[in-house]
Amino acid sequence: MEAILHTFGIDWRLLLVNAINFGLLLAVLSYFLYKPMLKMLEDRRTHIAAGVAASNEAKERLAKIEETRQETIQAAAREADDLVRAAREAGNTRSAELVAAGERRAAAAVAEAELQAKELKERALQESKEEVAKMIVLGIEKTAKHK
Predict the structure, then answer these.
(1) For 47-66, what is each residue's pLDDT tens digit?
(2) Helices (H) and strands (E) in the chain, counts
């Protein structure tokens, strides 16, 4: 075996020293580079997984908030419709009351006007009768003075 190593120009002591150097270099690089790199990659993977989980949670909360917002909007719309309906009903009721009150006032005014017209007519008739009576008395006095 020594002849083969000598034929190829390989010095076993040099090969052993190079193997030891490679082992030491491998151990040093593994300790100072490989393990910290693996730890950094694991931390980054954990950080990304936490970010994805937080993103999913935020999406769920946003969906719940949107649902709550829609429910609130619908409730407000229903309440507004109820208020508008109640206001219309109150307005219609008040309008009917005002119309009825106006009709009553108009009827009272018409009745009062009719009463005043009747009184005027009676007064005019009474005055006419008095005038006619005065005329008759004057006519009789004139005829009595002429006879």
Answers:
(1) 999 999 999 999 999 999 99
(2) 3, 0
Q: Which residues contact 5 (CB under 8 A, 6 or more apart)?
A: 11, 12
* Domains in the chain: boundaries: 2-146
- Written as one string, the DSSP assignment of 70-123 is HHHHHHHHHHHHHHHHHHHHHHHHHHHHHHHHHHHHHHHHHHHHHHHHHHHHHH
Q: What is the pLDDT of residues 108-137, one digit of tens each?
A: 999 999 999 999 999 999 989 888 888 888
Whether the CB-CB separation of 5 and 12 falls below 8 Å is answered with yes
What whole-number distance in Å separates Cα of residue 32 and Cα of residue 47?
23
